[in-house]
Structure formats: C-alpha cells, structure tokens
C-alpha cells in the first residue's frame, strides 16, 4: 500500500476544461432532457391533449394539480448525462434520487428509456402509453406523486427526505462494479441523516466495493424558503466538502454551457472513481491510495429551470414558487393557462414524439442496451439475491445447566456466518458491537474503516458508526440489492430509526405487490442491552418502544422474537437470516442468564411452536391449572419461573402452569403465526387467570390479546416507565415485574371458592412477599447489589 496521502490537501474547487467535449455528442441528450421536461411538466397538469395537438383549454387541465416541478429539470439533466456515460462506457450504474417528490422526472425518463413499458405492459411505448402515464400520474390507479417501489429502478422510498445517500452507499458495498449516482436535495441536506451520511465513503474499500457519486442538487430553495446550502458561498461549500474528504466540482455556474459542463464533470467523476478503484485492485493493491478523495458534484440549477418564468408579476423560475405546481390556477385563470401553453409548447413536443407518439429516433438512440438502462438493472429488482450459507446452529448449543449470555452465544454463531459469507453478509452497528457482547465476530473479521491506517484494506465485514441513521441506510441499501445484513443495537436507541423502518416497510409492501420484483433478504435487528439490564446506565437507557412501533406495521412482514435463553437465540437468528421479505426483530440479553432448554431438540420444538408450556417449572401436572403464569423476554421469564418456585415452596397445593412465549406474533389474531383459538385455549386455558410478565410495555400484549381473552382474566406486567440507576432486581420491583409481584397477583386472582386451602393462606403469603420486597429494597440501598438468588433450587432439575 502506498503511504502517500490523498491527492488534494487544501480546499480547492476542481477545474476542468469544459470545451473539450464534442458538443455534437451531447445534442441527443439535450433533446432527451427536453422530452423528459415536457413529460414531467405535462404530467402534473394534463388530462387530455397530451401532446398539445391543439391549444390548451381549461378542460384539458386536471381537477387536482399535484406533483412537484421544481426539482425535475435538475434530475432530468442528471438522468440524461448518466445515460450518456452508461452508453458510452457500458457502466453499471443506478440512480438514487433523494427528493422522491421529483417522481415526474424519474417517470418521464423511465418511460423514454422503455423501462415503464417493459414492466407494465399496459403502458405501451406510444401515444396511448404517454396518455396513461400523464393522466395517471397522481391520479387514482396511476403512479403516485413520490418515487416508490412500483417505479422501476428504485431502491429508495422517496417521500421522507434524508436517507438517499446512506442507502446508496449500502447498495455499493460488496458490489465492486456498481456505481450509485445519488441526487441529494439541498433541502434534504439540512437533515441530520444526510449531514452525517457524507462520511459513509469511509467504509468503502475500493477493492471490494463499488462507488457512490453524490450530486448535491443546489437549486437554492426548499418548499417555501431558501436552503442553508443555497446561502453558502462557493468557498464555504468547497471547504466543507473538502473537509468531509471529497474532491468537489461545481457544475452550472453558467447556464449557457451547463450541458458541456455536466458532460465533462461526469466524465471526470467517473474517471476519478476508476482511478481510485484501479489503484486498489491492480497489482495486489500495492498502489492503493490511502484516503482517496472520491469525487462529488455540486450542481447549481435554477429551481424549476425552463419552466414558467413568472405569473401575475411574480417570479417563478429560480424561486421556491417553482417547488410544487408552478401555475396552480391553470384551470381557472386565463393568464396561467396561457403561460402553461407557452411553457409546454416551448419544448416543441412535435419535434420530440412522432405521429405514433413514440419518442423520435434520436432520443431512442440515446439509451444503452436493455439491462444497462437505469430502470432495468437487476440489482434494483432484487434479481441478485443469493441465500446465505449458514452453519448448523445446533453445533453452538450450550447443553449443560448453567448461565450463558445469549449475545455471546450468538456471536460465536455469527462468526461462522461471517467466515462462510465473505462478500454477502455485514453487520452494521452504532458503536455497540463489544458492548452488546458480539465480540467473538472480531476473531474472524475486522471493522471496516478505510480512513484508519491499521484497518484500511482489511476486508472488514463490520461497520461501526455512531449513527443509527447511517446503519439503517446502509442496511437498507445492502438488503435491497440482495445481500443480508444484521443491525444489533441498544434497545433504547433503535427507536431513532423508527420512521426509516416505517418507510422501508411501505417500500417492501408495494414491492411485494409488484409482480416483477423478486424476493429479497429480510431486514434483521437484534435489540440488546435491554432495559432490564440498563439499571447501571439508568432511566435514559430504558426504552422498549421500537417493538411497539413495529407492531403497527402490516403483520405479514413483521416478526418479533423474544428468545428466553441463549439456545433459543441461536435458532432464532438462524431462522431470521434464512428468511426473506420480513422485518425481523429479536429482543435479546447480553448478561449471562439461565439456559432453560439444554437440548437442540427441545429448543427447536419450543421455537418452532413460538409458545409452549414449560412442564419442568409447572405444578399442574399438565392439566387443570388454577393459574397460568406467562413469561416473555429473558428477565421477565426468569421472574415467572422464580414466582412459580415461590408458590411451589410456599403453596404446593396450588396448580401453577408456566408458559413461555418466544414468538410474540402467536398471540394476535391476524398474524400468520397466530395460534388458532383452541390451541390458545389449550395452552392458556379457556377460563383461568393469566398473569403475563412481558419484557416491554404492557400495551403491546394488551393490543395483541384484545380479541382473544376477557380483560378481567388477564393481568399484564411490563415496563412501566419506572427506572433510574439501581440494581437489576430493583428495576423489576419498581415496575411490578418481580417474582413477588407475579406471585401476589397469582394469589389475588384465585377465587376462594375453588381453592379453599390456598385461600386461607393467601393473606399471610401476600404479606410475606410484600415484606420480602421491602427487605430487598433496604438491602440494595445498603449494599448497592442484589442478594444472592438461590430460589430456583426449589426445582431439583435446576442448578
Ligand atoms: C423528512 C422530511 N421532512 C420534510 C419533508 C417535506 N418536504 C418535501 S419536499 C421538501 C423540500 C425539499 O427541498 P430539496 O431537498 O432542496 O428538494 P428540491 O428543492 O430539489 O425539490 C420538504 C421539506 C419531507 N418530505 N421529508
Ligand atoms: C484485522 O486487521 C489487522 C490489521 O490491523 C490484521 O492484522 C488482522 O489479521 C485482521 N484480523 C482479521 C480477523 O481479519
Ligand atoms: C423448561 C421446559 O419446560 N421446557 C419445555 C419447553 O417446551 C418444549 C416443547 O415445546 C418441551 O419439550 C420442554 O421440555
């Protein structure tokens, strides 16, 4: 590896000779842009007279004008120049557009390049197809106003701004030939996720991964005001992005030669990408550039460029008035209708489309061969998914009684997954890998960090960056291009990416309903460092809300598992990494906790069922329990087993059944994992009291069981927003989830008629347990630790 640092040391804008490009070679692409601008503009307004065969009349205008024009001309410029280079150099390139409200631009280009027709046969490549496209846009049953997974070539739900850049980087990881050109809005750039994502190329090893070409689309305005970036001087912009590590080329300072400028700048950028890659790939990487400065473009274009200049004496082009519908009263107002006519006519649709309505030959000739067109790339249609090669989880089962950390066992298994899948599996972690006890994976791989002298070029499969947003974006891009990832996180902070996951779920849902899309791996999360063992970090670290948020999504794509011990964790991870098309959440624990199920067969049986009675800890002899105690989660299940032990010690005549739920979704009525009602009744009984001790907020269980059980028969314990820095057992007491709370509830729930012998003792036992709680509180305050716990010795089968 060369020890030279990168090429540019001080902030300097990249200078190029823009006259070196042969103007003739870009002419067809200027025509292509004219056609795309025409279609994008017309799509927002017209319901008839689609190619302006006569003068526009009010009845040609849609009743509801929806869509965003302002960003479209810039996207069209980028699309055309990408297409030009793809054709010339057979580049494998996809386009990710951050401002997904620019859908009219994407759709226009996808139509021109034949991609819409290819995947939607009802959009023919002629006048009829154009009519359907234009009229159908933002109209019931047509394409919606923002890019989504129905739009060919997309790996990004474009409605919620901020994620395009991270998703692009995820797509090129381990995809050495792919280039993801990413348009980032200047408004979008104000978002936190975008601000941090500029750094993500530091995880790109040019020998094993492809490249992202970021294009900051500086059109100066967002919805109704100027953007931060639009207010910055060239010097400031260049200093900022040089500081991030880029070589910055500014395009579009002069509109009269913007086309040549863009052509030359794109050629330069691709050349730089290839230079960096070549150095890292050839001759065993001995000329690898340390800290290569990847290229980026800052594209200045007037918002709504080529659109109406003004109306009612107010400027439109180049202002935020061009953001959405530039002539919002075109149907009612004569002046606006005239301006619309004048604007659309200026593109001369007759020169763009022939009499059959097909784009003229010069435009059709712009495109590369089919599979290179940006709407047709197999990466974006999940045509590239290969299942992981997985080790046998049973080899990692801990087959003795004793305590193990679920996360540590998982780490051993994941290390094998990494070894077997060097270029198709990655872990994305917000700086919590070792804290979450996955340290064993570091025996077989490193962290990726191309900016670090020791880690550069080491092929690390772990990406650690203290931004949940980047982790999520990378994971999405990686997953949507067919590779499998894992996102372990502190439970409390995974909620940071909630809305990203919700957007992803929308993308997934429509993708699954879009017939030409193929399966893709699931999105996999592990929550660890969960609230019950965040007693040391305190209240801020106690937050199980992410689970509740997932529960609101379409149940057919959500899987939520709470494996009660390390062995169940193994089979659960294995299952998730094999699955396709889901969002999997595993809630786990990193501290050593009892192994309840010691044989692989038991583990498999329990986890396959998702819920089962645990006879070892029950005293109902398999039938007619007086009360059913249910554990779900690691620590809460432990307390349920301990409550059963208390009752067995103090009240042996009581018939207690212990049930564990590992697959949350068995409880609801709508999920494909649901128990049918007589299975439910067989486990939970049709009429006996149920005391549920849940890992997270009780509301999660209550909403699942709402249609299932009479509320009066079920009591749910769970996290109740009580917490502080305290001992682990005190956390349980503070939230009413300790063994004493469960045992007290069990006794309270009994009807004295049915259980005479027990009823006589109830008052005494409950008072004793309350006393025990009080004693415990005193003990922990005095000593800062919990007392030794040997209660489980009551079960002779255990320790
Ligand atoms: C996270 C998020 N916040 C707010 C919005 C609402 N919104 C839609 S477009 C837009 C302005 C976008 O400006 P920019 O990224 O510069 O795009 P362009 O000017 O190219 O249209 C905003 C704030 C959104 N879509 N997503
Ligand atoms: C991690 O990187 C170091 C160099 O910093 C290298 O010596 C080591 O072999 C790598 N470890 C693995 C497991 O790849
Ligand atoms: C500890 C315990 O009772 N485990 C049981 C869990 O459930 C499976 C069947 O699903 C039984 O085989 C185990 O004995």
UniProtKB/TrEMBL annotation:
Keywords: Lyase, Thiamine pyrophosphate. One of its GO terms (molecular function) is aldehyde-lyase activity. Residues 590-789 form the Xylulose 5-phosphate/Fructose 6-phosphate phosphoketolase C-terminal domain. Residues 25-383 form the Xylulose 5-phosphate/Fructose 6-phosphate phosphoketolase N-terminal domain. One of its GO terms (biological process) is carbohydrate metabolic process. InterPro entries: THDP-binding (IPR029061), Transketo_C/PFOR_II (IPR009014), Xul5P/Fru6P_PKetolase (IPR005593), Xul5P/Fru6P_PKetolase_C (IPR018969), Xul5P/Fru6P_PKetolase_CS (IPR019790), Xul5P/Fru6P_PKetolase_N (IPR018970), Xul5P/Fru6P_PKetolase_ThDP_BS (IPR019789). Its cofactor is thiamine diphosphate. It holds the Pfam family XFP_C. Belongs to the XFP family. This is Phosphoketolase.
């Amino acid at each position: 590896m060369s020890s030279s640092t990168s090429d540019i040391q001080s902030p300097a804008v990249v200078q190029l000779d823009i006259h070196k490009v042969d103007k003739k070679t870009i002419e067809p692409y200027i025509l292509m842009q004219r056609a795309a601008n025409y279609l994008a503009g017309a799509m927002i307004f017209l319901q008839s007279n689609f190619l302006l065969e006569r003068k526009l009349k009010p009845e040609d205008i849609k009743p509801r004008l929806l869509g965003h024009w302002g960003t479209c001309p810039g996207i069209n410029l980028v699309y055309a120049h990408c297409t030009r280079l793809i054709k010339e150099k057979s580049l494998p390139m996809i386009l990710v557009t951050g401002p997904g409200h620019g859908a009219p631009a994407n759709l226009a280009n996808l139509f021109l390049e034949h991609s819409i027709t290819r995947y939607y046969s009802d959009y023919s490549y002629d006048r009829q197809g154009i009519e359907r496209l234009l009229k159908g846009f933002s109209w019931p049953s047509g394409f919606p106003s923002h890019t989504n997974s129905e739009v060919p070539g997309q790996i990004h739900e474009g409605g919620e701004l901020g994620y395009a850049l991270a998703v692009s980087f995820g797509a090129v990881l381990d995809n050495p030939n792919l280039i993801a050109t990413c348009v980032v809005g200047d408004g979008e750039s104000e978002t936190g996720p975008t601000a941090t994502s500029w750094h993500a190329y530091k995880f790109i090893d040019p020998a094993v991964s492809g490249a992202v070409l970021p294009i900051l689309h500086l059109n100066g305005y967002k919805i109704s005001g100027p953007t931060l970036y639009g207010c910055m001087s060239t010097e400031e912009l260049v200093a900022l992005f040089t500081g991030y590590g880029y070589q910055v080329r500014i395009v579009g300072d002069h509109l009269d030669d913007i086309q040549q400028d863009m052509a030359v700048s794109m050629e330069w950028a691709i050349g730089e990408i290839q230079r960096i890659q070549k150095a890292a790939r050839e001759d065993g990487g001995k000329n690898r550039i340390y800290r290569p400065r990847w290229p980026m473009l800052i594209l200045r274009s007037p918002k709504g460029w080529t659109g109406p200049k003004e109306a009612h004496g107010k400027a439109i082009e180049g202002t935020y008035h061009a953001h959405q519908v530039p002539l919002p009263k075109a149907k009612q107002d004569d002046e606006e209708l005239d301006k619309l006519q004048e604007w659309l006519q200026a593109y001369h649709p007759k020169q763009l489309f022939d009499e059959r309505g097909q784009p003229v030959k010069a435009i059709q000739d712009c495109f590369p061969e089919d599979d290179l067109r940006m709407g047709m790339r197999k990466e974006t249609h999940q045509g590239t998914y290969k299942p992981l090669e997985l080790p046998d989880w049973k080899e990692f089962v801990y087959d003795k009684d004793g305590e193990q950390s679920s996360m540590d066992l998982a780490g051993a298994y994941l290390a094998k997954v990494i070894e077997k899948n060097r270029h198709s599996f990655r872990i994305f972690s917000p700086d919590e890998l070792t804290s979450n006890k996955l340290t064993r994976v570091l025996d077989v791989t490193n962290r990726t960090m191309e900016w670090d002298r020791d880690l550069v070029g080491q092929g690390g499969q772990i990406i650690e960056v203290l931004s949940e947003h980047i982790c999520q974006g990378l994971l999405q891009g990686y997953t949507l291009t067919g590779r499998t990832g894992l996102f372990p996180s502190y439970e409390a902070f995974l909620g940071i990416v909630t809305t990203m996951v919700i957007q992803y779920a929308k993308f997934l849902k429509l993708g699954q309903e879009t017939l030409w899309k193929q399966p893709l791996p699931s999105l996999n999360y592990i929550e660890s460092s969960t609230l019950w063992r965040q007693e040391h970090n305190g209240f801020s670290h106690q937050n199980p809300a992410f689970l509740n948020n997932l529960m609101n999504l379409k149940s057919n794509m959500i899987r939520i598992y709470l494996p009660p011990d390390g062995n169940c964790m193994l089979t659960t991870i294995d299952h998730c990494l094999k699955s396709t098309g889901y969002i999997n959440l595993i809630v786990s624990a990193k501290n050593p906790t009892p192994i309840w199920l010691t044989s692989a067969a038991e583990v498999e049986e329990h986890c396959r069922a998702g819920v089962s009675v645990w006879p070892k800890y029950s005293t109902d002899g398999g039938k007619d329990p007086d009360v059913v105690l249910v554990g779900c989660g690691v620590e809460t299940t432990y307390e349920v087993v301990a409550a059963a032990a208390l009752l067995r010690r103090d009240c042996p005549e009581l018939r207690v059944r212990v049930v564990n739920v590992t697959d949350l979704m068995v409880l609801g009525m709508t999920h494909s994992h649901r128990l049918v009602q007589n299975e439910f009744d067989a486990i939970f009984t049709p009429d006996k009291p149920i005391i549920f001790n849940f890992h997270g907020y009780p509301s999660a269980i209550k909403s699942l069981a709402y249609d299932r059980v009479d509320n009066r028969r079920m009591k749910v314990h769970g996290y109740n927003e009580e917490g502080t820095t305290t001992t682990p057992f005190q956390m349980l007491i503070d939230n009413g989830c300790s063994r004493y709370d469960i045992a007290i509830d069990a006794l309270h729930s009994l009807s004295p008629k049915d259980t005479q012998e027990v009823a006589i003792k109830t008052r005494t036992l409950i008072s004793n347990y309350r006393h025990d709680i009080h004693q415990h509180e005193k003990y922990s305050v005095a000593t800062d630790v919990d007392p030794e716990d040997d209660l489980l010795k009551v079960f002779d089968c255990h320790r």
